[in-house]
Amino acid sequence: MARTFQTVGVVGLGTMGAGIAEVFARAGLRVVGVEVDAQALDRGRGNLHRSTERAVSRGRLSQDERDGLLARTTFTGELSDLGDADLVIEAIPEVMDYKRALFADLDRVCRPDAVLATNTSSLPVTAIAATTSRPGQVVGMHFFNPAPVMGLVEVVRTVVTEDGAADDVAALARRVGKTPVIVGDRAGFVVNRLLFGYLNHAVTLLERGVAAKEDIDTAMKAGAGLPMGPFTLLDLIGLDVSHEVCEVLFQESRDRVHAPAPLLRELVTAGLLGRKSGRGFHDYDGAAARAAA
Ligand code: 3HC
């Protein structure tokens, strides 16, 4: 029988984690947000407060619904507060050692029947699952940025994931208003495998002086019907995340299309990470930053 998820833990409240927490809270589930970093914990809480306030002001949520949503969402610095969770989703930085250590800890603190999920963009879910005593209950649950808006969730099933776990997580994705697709555990899954060849190639075109970045953005919006040009999208995703995804894809595929463009690496080294740092390919300081916020 399909399980009913009531309480969801989200570990890591950066851009993706905070957005994922909002998706579940809006859908009526109890949410426990966990961050080791007090600042990130405040930011996650602040995002949820601002975003739901905006929803009330636009008439998309009543004040009572907002109060209920905030009341069933808690924020904590302690993993041990996840003892009641039916599902925990990890959204910490893309460093395999951190993820493996976290999953070993989650395996200890979570109920034996809880499903453990990773929002990794490109790291192998199988290697993460192998650090736990319940690899059959470990899946990828990959959301897209901005998580409250984008409709897709890739549910990653490894060779050891039990069918029931993947199916239940896909059903949960539907329940919270998303469209799930079940994918195998290959670097980049489906979307990033196809998307990052294109994004990386756009940086190469820029490096070769084929066109200005503004014109490449305009060309892909007006000519290919995309909602954002590649440089605006890279800035939204984050150049550090984008570089990391290309690197992992290149390691696995050895396809030059994924070899990170040198300019992408240089911007990351210079600390220009996109919208989140105020500047990437485009500048978000001042008026532009306020408009993008
Ligand atoms: N967080 C929450 N809500 C947001 C948001 C954000 N960061 N950005 C926009 N929204 C909401 C707005 O509030 C608005 O909702 P409302 O009408 O209820 O207020 C709605 O989205 C539409 O926003 P806007 O009218 O301001 O802007 P657009 O219509 O231009 O849409 C967009 C913005 C949805 C981001 C659109 O430009 C888009 O789809 N861009 C492409 C994004 C994309 O491709 N994402 C995938 C990246 S790959 C990835 O994430 C994988 C990872 O592993 C790297």
UniProtKB/TrEMBL annotation:
Residues 188-284 form the 3-hydroxyacyl-CoA dehydrogenase C-terminal domain. Residues 7-185 form the 3-hydroxyacyl-CoA dehydrogenase NAD binding domain. Keywords: Oxidoreductase. Pathway: Lipid metabolism; butanoate metabolism. Belongs to the 3-hydroxyacyl-CoA dehydrogenase family. This is 3-hydroxybutyryl-CoA dehydrogenase.
